[in-house]
Design brief:
The complex is a heterodimer. By secondary structure, chain A is mainly β. Helix content of chain A is 0%, strand content 52%. The relative contact order of chain A is 0.34. By secondary structure, chain B is mainly β. In chain B, a hairpin with a 2-residue loop joins strand 5 and strand 6. The radius of gyration of chain B is 13 Å and the shape is globular. Chain B starts with a strand and ends with a strand. Classes of the chains: A mainly beta, B mainly beta. Chains A and B meet through strand 4 and strand 5 of A and strand 5 and strand 10 of B.
Chain lengths: 111, 111
């Protein structure tokens, strides 16, 4: 089946630093999404990307849909303590009603 | 709008007991989903529904059942609880298949 690869499993950064996360796949996706999960909560949709090459921002977050349609990245600039959480990428191929999720990257921000 | 609500928030079951996890959404979304989340494993799809009266299996349906009699409600039933079903369960809904909005989760322990 389709799989999304996110690594490393954990990232540790200093407050104020920028951080970039990748998500790769062996399959093509038509839509890429990035979710954030705060501790003890459900995932929240951060950014959705619909076209290859698309670059979209949401505040300090920027995400891009790779031109091969097999990858996406998320960049967080000037990190703050509330950026702590698990970041999931997800892809939709358009073939059915399901999303494929990566395993997530746990981000820790040191003050 | 309350969004997606789930009850209960926490539950401890004994092996062999049964229970229903409730999920309700007030956004008139057609698509609804049940996921389980185990540490470091991301989100695995249990069942999903594309509309009232229609349900289908996801990646890990064994040991679970669902029904969708109304647009708003999508309960998940565990008939004979097993320790392997200890997990955090998330319900999600969306008007488009590729944008899903998650509830706060139900943390279930089976002992």
């Amino acid at each position: 089946g389709q799989q999304l690869n996110q690594s490393p499993q954990s990232m540790f950064i200093q407050e104020g630093e920028d951080v970039s996360m990748n998500c790769t796949s062996s399959s093509i996706f038509n839509t890429w999404l990035w979710y954030k999960q705060d501790p003890g909560e459900g995932p929240v949709l951060l950014i959705a990307l619909y076209k290859a090459g698309e670059l979209t921002s949401n505040g300090r977050l920027t995400a891009q849909f790779g031109i091969t349609r097999k990858d996406s990245f998320l960049n967080i600039s000037a990190s703050i303590p509330s950026d702590v959480g698990i970041y999931f990428c997800a892809g939709h191929s358009g073939a059915n009603s399901k999303l494929t999720f990566g395993k997530g990257i746990t981000l820790s921000v040191r003050p | 709008n309350a969004g997606v609500t789930q009850t209960p928030k926490f539950r401890i079951l004994k092996i062999g007991q049964s229970m229903t996890l409730q999920c309700t959404q007030d956004m008139n979304h057609n698509y609804m989903y049940w996921y389980r989340q185990d540490p470091g494993m991301g989100l695995k799809l249990i069942y999903y529904s594309v509309g009232a009266g229609i349900t289908d299996k996801g990646e890990v349906p064994n040991g679970y059942n669902v029904s969708r009699s109304t647009t708003e409600d999508f309960p998940l039933r565990l008939e004979l609880a097993a320790p392997s079903q200890t997990s955090v369960y998330f319900c999600a809904s969306g008007q488009r298949t590729y944008e899903q909005y998650f509830g706060p989760g139900t943390r279930l322990t089976v002992t």
